[in-house]
Structures are given as structure tokens and as C-alpha cells.
Description:
heterodimer; A: mainly beta; seven-stranded mixed sheet; four-stranded antiparallel sheet; 11 strands; 0% helix; B: mainly beta; six-stranded mixed sheet; globular
Amino acid sequence: DAGITQSPRHKVTETGTPVTLRCHQTENHRYMYWYRQDPGHGLRLIHYSYGVKDTDKGEVSDGYSVSRSKTEDFLLTLESATSSQTSVYFCAISEVAGSYTFGSGTRLTVV
Amino acid sequence: DQQVKQNSPSLSVQEGRISILNCDYTNSMFDYFLWYKKYPAEGPTFLISISSIKDKNEDGRFTVFLNKSAKHLSLHIVPSQPGDSAVYFCAAYSGAGSYQLTFGKGTKLSVIP
């Protein structure tokens, strides 16, 4: 979908390695979010950003860090990947409360 | 503590019949409620919303009902079509400055031709 892209779409990595997922938007929206989707858990918020260099933790932030040095990019880093971080990761953007646009997701497998 | 609950993981409905998806919430601060639809290998997309000042909102085949006293909302799809087969997420947020959505676990709807 136009306006928000996630990269990579798929990644397999080994336990203990660092991993960075990228979310890029062309909509100039202020708010950006990282969610993970797991069976039986739905969508859970990892971290979010309300502006350049302004970020905060979500519900399941342990083991993850984020950075936003430009309006258009929001990076999610797993410093040392674990098998429990195998998941599908979704980035979302919004300018108006509640009106989210999601990316297509990144499927991450940690072996 | 799950603040938005979708207690039915799955639902099967015949084409042409009504689909009813349910959602309960526990946080009294929530005053906006949304439904998102998700197809496999795609991100969720916005479907319909309702604010707490209303008890019903309609958009074509989709209607959302809100019962504030019971902290319950439901999504009705009439008539159901095979293309409606997807996972539906209920979400909520507080309008008092928070832009974060809290999602339920989702209900997988299968519409059988």
C-alpha cells in the first residue's frame, strides 16, 4: 500500500544476533508504531513515536529498542534476538487519533 | 490484564447470512472503538468506528453497535460475502490525548459459499 513500507518482508536470523527492521513512510505523519502479532495474542504494541527523537515504550517493549532520527523512518532493533521474538511485526502510522495505516508486515523467524 | 477482549477466536457463517462479531472492554476511559480487518500476508485495514456518544454506526453492509453500560460492542455484517473472510480486530482508545490503540486478539471469520 502506498505511503508506508516495511523492510525486509521476511527474515530468518540466529539466536543472539542483532536485527533491525525498518519502517518508512511518505505521508509525513507524526505518529509511528511498532506492533507484533502472535497467535492467541492479537496485536501488541512494542514501541511508538510521537515525533523525531520522541519515543516511548508499549506493552511488550522488553528486548526491543527503537529510533526515529527522521520523520519518515522508524527503526525497530532487537539487540540480541531470541526465539520468543519470532513473530510478524507491523508498523503503523497515524496523524489523527485512532486512524492507523498499517504496513504489510515483516515475518521474523529466530532459529 | 486484557483491556479489549474478543472471546471467539473463530466464526463460520453461510454466505448471505448475518455475521456478528463481539468485543468486550474493561477500561472505562475508552471512548472510541474501531474494527480493523486483516487478510493473510497483509496489514490490518480500518473498517468502521464508533464514538461513545453514539450507540450505532452504519456503513453499507457493516454496522457497529455499542452498549456502554455493558462495555460491549458488536460488528454486524449483512449480508456476509466470501470476500469478508478475514481476521477482525476490535480496538479502542481514550480520546484524552492518547493516540495508542489497544487491540483485541481477533476473530477469524469464515464465510462459506
